[in-house]
Each structure stands twice: as C-alpha cells, then as structure tokens.
Amino acid sequence: MERASRKARVGIVVSDSSDKTVTVEVRDQKRHARYGKTIPVRKKYYAHDETNDANVGDTVRIVETRPLSKSKRWRVEEVVERAR
Predict the structure, then answer these.
(1) Contact 48/75 with Cβ under 8 angstroms?
(2) Burial class of residue 30, CB neighbours in 10 A (0-12, 13-18, 19+)
(3) Which domains does the chain have, with CATH numbers?
(4) Residues 29-76: pLDDT tens digits?
C-alpha cells in the first residue's frame, strides 16, 4: 500500500529563535466567496528544523508530518533560497 502524498507549502522564515523550530509564513491568494475579489491570505506554521539550518528571511519548503508537539505538524524539507 502506498502512502498518500503529503501537503507541501513554500514560505519565508519569520522566526528561528526556538531550538529546532522555525516559524514559516506562507502567503497565498484566495477568491472572496461572494464578491470574487482576490484577497491576500497569510498563515504561520511551526516547522521542525532538525539541523537548525534555516535562518530568518530564508525561503523554505515545508511538508506535513505527524504531530511533533502541541503546535508543530510540519517539518522543513529544504531551504529553497537563502536570505541576502
């Protein structure tokens, strides 16, 4: 039996102050249900970063995983782009 594909998001690290945890802000656009206007949506995810590799400003890809703590359900898969 094959595992279902996991959800993935790309976002920017906004905090790396916790040990092995980064806060990632994912920006998206969504259409308003009634008026059809496109509105920006921002959501923050806590992601597990085992090697403490990601820093503030880096663009990272996070994937869904099993619950690792009260609020961590994502882990950093790769650093897509380093902050300048």
Answers:
(1) yes
(2) exposed
(3) 8-79 (2.40.50.140)
(4) 999 999 999 999 999 999 999 999 999 999 999 999 999 999 999 999
